[in-house]
Amino acid sequence: MVPLSFAGEAFLALPEAALYWPARRALLVADLHFEKASWYARFGQFLPPHDSRATLDVIEALVDRTGAQALFSLGDSFHDSDGAARLDPQARDRLSALTERLDWTWITGNHDVGVATLPGGRRVAEANVGGIWLRHEAQPDDPRPEMSGHFHPKLRLSLRGRHVSRRCFVGSATKLILPALGALTGGLDAGHGEIRRAVGPGAAALVPVADRLLRFPLA
């Protein structure tokens, strides 16, 4: 975990694509996309079927590691409106146990807007926590501090003939986009025009490694 300052608050960035807020004892995650593999399987495209369990493995480990008492999931927690219903019994029980253990908030995303019943927690369109707005998709015209997901940012570099791709945060003075935590989520290049439009001028890709946060300005 490495320090990350945003909107006057101290956070810890985790290489597992999550953010911890010590003052709130809260984990922030985005784009879990539970049951993505089973959605594709319905259309004959078979992916490794254990994506939900793998994502839960990461969340459980982060909760244990940080001692978090709350969790905010910034939208697209399920890959589609039937995703929660397709969870296998073991995954459902594990997720229900987490929502009972934590003060869990689901923020609605474009993929999971139609989910009828969630396994615990509460669902909101957006939330204001300590003066920071938590949303699924950034609102470029809103000048208030904001955290969001949606874009699955990745930093792609070419180093010594090798192509490197890492999940990253993208931040500016008032915007912070979290990477996707879900096991089967892809990613959009951090320098893509849509991401730069969402965060505004002065944006940088932020990559937590070991004991420091690497910053790559986005032209």
UniProtKB/TrEMBL annotation:
NCBIfam families: P_estr_lig_assc. It is an enzyme of class 3 (hydrolase). Residues 25-121 form the Calcineurin-like phosphoesterase domain. It comes from the Bacteria. Keywords: Endonuclease, Hydrolase, Ligase, Nuclease. Gene3D superfamilies: 3.60.21.10. Coiled coil: none annotated. This is Ligase-associated DNA damage response endonuclease PdeM. GO terms for molecular function: endonuclease activity; hydrolase activity; ligase activity. InterPro entries: Calcineurin-like_PHP (IPR004843), Metallo-depent_PP-like (IPR029052), PdeM-like (IPR026336), Pesterase_MJ0037-like (IPR024173). Its EC number is 3.1.-.-. Pfam families: Metallophos.
